[in-house]
Amino acid sequence: MAEGGMIPCVPAGEPGAVDHIRPCLTGVIWKGIIDFSGEEPIKAAILKVIGNIFIVNMIETLAEGHVFAEKTGLGVENLQKFLSAIFPNPYMIHSKEMSTGNYYGKEPLVSIDMAQSLAAETMDMAKESGTSVKAYETAVEHMKMVKSYAGPTGDIAGLYGVVRMESGLGYENRESKGW
Question: Which superkingdom (predicted)?
Answer without folding.
Answer: Eukaryota
